[in-house]
């Protein structure tokens, strides 16, 4: 019987995926010269089993039922491969190229072997795995299957089957699952066109796959997986970027040429456009960081271009509570090494000063990079991204139990202590039977990085524990979107910067020209209204007015005599108390709610304690410069630039509280027995006489040429007594005491005088900075009016 020749007009078959699927990537080929066919040691070289990018040939008619047999002929090696792959699809297994032999004369391939994808066993290279831990071990897919098809090239140029092994040592895949096998996955021409269209519209792989499944009538009819789609889109992005990446580099070079303080960096070879990541920061962003760089938000979820490159802005919060920019990045590569490079580059642009805290999306790669670059910075995961992910991961639960979302939010946001949160969480997972839910357990393990009760001891510049950070994913809202290309992006980017700058200037103008309405006669409220920006004062005023409904009472469990603990409760809510520890001597208070540590503003609980202890003004260490009108000034003020009367109130408060604290201790000791009581009464009466005498004579004290003088006759008498001492005669003990008192008084006066001079100087500096700010506002208003006129 003559051998049957099958002619296939085809392109090379192969998977449409460039991703990995088990061990199918690792194929070894044997290239053996024709004259060395009997050689016992053929040379081994690497061989690619999925080299082609065309369509897989599927035989038609009766040919589909053919089974390979020895002697079957093909017009080409590619035809043999396509036939065996189509046979494998009908039977239910995947194929790959195993080995080949080459001619010694011209190096052409003269023999091929196609095998089942499960042929052989994984080659465990001990040298590669000995000294490193494999974080994500790949699935074992090779089980030593012997099924194969061998073909040899004849002198006529045709290829003939020289060997065929039918049997498999594993289960075969049923027809409704065969489309998952790698060698049978392909992206057809029409599917590529649809993917290109949807990708240009800003859709992601998941949504595109949903559209394809609906279009083709099922996943089995699509012919490829979401991984294949994702890889195809990634390759599309790389091809598209090759043209537009030059626009990015040209823009950055132009900006740096215009201003040498413009910073940009490229990971890769800029000259050859082999770029992995790009970072840039304009001079204003770098200056912003010097004033407001205590807390930073880094958001990689902001896809703002048609290539779906993560556009990652570094943002913070200014003195008006508005988002402010610290720099931007385009991430072409999202590997751990890329994030490490980005964070180090950003830190260098910000003069090497790491922030106190940083907020990012829930991502293990970013977390690892932050631990390497910012080991001392407190890392917080964005709570709102976790809530959004929760809606996706627990969608079935949201539909089944409408109350779950509210219960989840309460469990996360409302607990006042760690113990309360832990108890609430256990009740929640038990109530909804979620103890074994893998994703929920993952975020619970990370609770110290996103649940508010664990983060209150660190500054994040947020006005309340439960609010959403306004800087997260909002700086460029309304300017860039998913269909924005790179050419459009920078124009819209500059518009966003201009808009944000105008909003800050307007907030500065309102703060300087609109006096807030005071709601209490408290000197503290007036002081705050003159120091804080408008928005921050309103938030402080809310806390101050809130103290009117709170009662602060002294607790009995004080161990330290200098620190008094107060229990602060809202009227009618005795079951819910906060505890404030107040150091009278240092004028420092800490509250169990930790609002000051978290936001930089004092809570109503501490202010309630200040009210009952007659603290009339805010101590300087509770006024953060970053929240004041002068936040952007270069003058570093150790104390707020307040008037002399404010300084007097504060010093008077310190004296009052110190005396009262000592008096309490005196009363406790003096009342223990009748003898100590009598001694205490006598001491108090004597002290009262001395204080009354000092008060009476305080008004007569006058300064002459920097010297303290009392009654003129007494001064003259003292002067004569001292001056009539013989030269060289030692002073008496009384005269020495008087002289020491005089010098001490002079020193005290000089110190007070310096304080007055210092207060005046700070006031002048404040006026200069206010004047500069007003001029800046006028210039900005003129620019805006000129634009409107044009």
UniProtKB/TrEMBL annotation:
One Pfam family cited in the UniProt record for this chain: FAR1
Domain SWIM-type: 582-614
Signal peptide (residue range): none
Gene Ontology CC annotations of this record: nucleus
Domain of life from the UniProt record: Eukaryota
GO biological process, one term: regulation of DNA-templated transcription
Keywords attached to this entry: Coiled coil, Metal-binding, Nucleus, Zinc, Zinc-finger
Function of the protein: Putative transcription activator involved in regulating light control of development.
Record protein name field: Protein FAR1-RELATED SEQUENCE
Species of provenance: Durio zibethinus (Durian)
């Amino acid at each position: 019987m003559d051998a049957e020749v099958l002619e296939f007009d085809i392109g090379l078959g192969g998977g449409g995926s460039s991703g990995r699927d088990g061990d199918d990537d690792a194929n070894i080929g044997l290239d053996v010269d024709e004259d060395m066919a009997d050689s016992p040691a053929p040379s081994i070289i690497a061989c690619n089993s999925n080299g082609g990018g065309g369509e897989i040939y599927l035989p038609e008619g009766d040919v589909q039922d053919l089974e390979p047999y020895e002697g079957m002929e093909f017009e080409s090696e590619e035809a043999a491969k396509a036939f065996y792959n189509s046979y494998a699809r009908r039977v239910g297994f995947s194929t790959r190229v195993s080995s080949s032999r080459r001619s010694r004369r011209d190096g052409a391939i003269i023999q091929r072997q196609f095998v089942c994808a499960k042929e052989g066993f994984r080659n465990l290279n001990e040298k590669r795995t000995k000294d490193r831990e494999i974080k994500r071990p790949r699935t074992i897919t090779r089980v030593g299957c012997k099924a194969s098809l061998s073909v040899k090239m004849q002198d006529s140029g045709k290829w003939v089957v020289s060997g065929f092994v039918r049997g498999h040592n594993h289960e075969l895949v049923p027809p409704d699952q065969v489309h998952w096998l790698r060698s049978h996955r392909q992206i057809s021409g029409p599917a590529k066109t649809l993917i290109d269209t949807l990708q240009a519209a800003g859709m992601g792989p998941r949504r595109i796959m949903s559209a394809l499944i609906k279009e083709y009538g099922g996943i089995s009819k699509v012919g490829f997986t979401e991984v294949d789609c994702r890889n195809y889109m990634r390759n599309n992005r790389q091809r598209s970027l090759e043209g537009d990446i030059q626009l990015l580099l040209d823009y950055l070079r132009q900006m740096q040429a215009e201003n040498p303080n413009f910073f940009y960096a490229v990971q890769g070879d800029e000259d050859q456009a082999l770029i992995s990541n790009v970072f840039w920061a304009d001079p204003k962003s770098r200056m912003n960081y010097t004033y407001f760089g205590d807390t930073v938000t880094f958001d990689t979820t902001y896809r703002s271009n048609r290539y779906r490159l993560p556009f990652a802005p570094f943002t913070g919060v200014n003195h008006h509570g508005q988002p402010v920019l610290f720099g931007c990045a385009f991430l072409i590569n999202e590997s751990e090494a890329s994030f490490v490079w980005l964070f180090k580059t950003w830190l260098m642009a910000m003069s090497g000063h790491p922030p106190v805290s940083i907020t990012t999306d829930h991502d293990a790669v970013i977390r690892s990079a932050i631990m390497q670059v910012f080991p001392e910075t407190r890392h917080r995961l964005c709570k709102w991204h976790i809530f959004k992910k929760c809606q996706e991961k627990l969608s079935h639960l949201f539909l089944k139990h409408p109350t779950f979302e509210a219960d989840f939010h309460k469990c996360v946001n409302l607990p006042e202590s760690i113990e309360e949160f832990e108890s609430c969480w256990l009740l929640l997972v038990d109530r909804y039977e979620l103890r074994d839910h893998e994703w929920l357990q993952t975020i619970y393990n990370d609770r110290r990085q996103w649940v508010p009760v664990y983060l209150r001891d660190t500054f994040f510049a947020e006005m309340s524990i439960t609010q959403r950070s306004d800087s997260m994913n909002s700086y460029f809202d309304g300017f860039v979107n998913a269909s924005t290309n790179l050419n459009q992006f920078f124009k819209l980017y500059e518009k966003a910067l201009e808009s944000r700058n105008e909003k800050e200037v307007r907030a500065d103008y309102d703060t300087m020209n609109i006096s807030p309405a005071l709601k209490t006669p408290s000197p503290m409220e007036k002081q705050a209204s003159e120091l804080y920006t408008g928005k921050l004062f309103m938030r402080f005023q809310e806390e101050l007015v809130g103290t009117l409904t709170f009662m602060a009472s002294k607790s009995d469990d004080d161990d330290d005599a200098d620190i008094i603990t107060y229990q602060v409760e809202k009227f009618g809510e005795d079951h819910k108390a906060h505890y404030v520890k107040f150091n009278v001597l240092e004028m420092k208070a800490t509250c169990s709610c930790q609002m000051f540590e978290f936001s930089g503003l004092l809570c109503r609980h501490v202010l309630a304690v200040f009210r009952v202890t007659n603290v009339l003004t805010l101590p300087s260490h509770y006024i953060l410069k970053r929240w004041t009108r002068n936040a952007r000034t270069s003058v570093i003020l150790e104390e707020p630039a307040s008037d002399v009367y404010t300084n007097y109130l504060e010093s008077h408060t310190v004296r009052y509280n110190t005396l009262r604290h000592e008096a309490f201790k005196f009363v406790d000791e003096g009342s223990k027995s009748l003898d100590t009581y009598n001694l205490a009464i006598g001491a108090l009466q004597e002290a009262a006489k001395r204080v009354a005498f000092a008060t009476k004579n305080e008004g007569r004290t006058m300064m002459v040429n920097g010297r303290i003088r009392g009654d003129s006759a007494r001064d003259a008498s003292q002067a004569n007594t001292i001056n009539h001492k013989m030269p060289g005669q030692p002073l008496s003990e009384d005269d020495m005491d008087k002289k020491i008192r005089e010098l001490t008084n002079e020193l005290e006066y000089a110190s007070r005088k310096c304080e007055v001079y210092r207060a005046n100087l700070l006031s002048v500096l404040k006026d200069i900075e206010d004047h500069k700010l007003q001029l800046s506002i006028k210039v900005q208003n003129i620019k805006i009016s000129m634009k409107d006129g044009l």
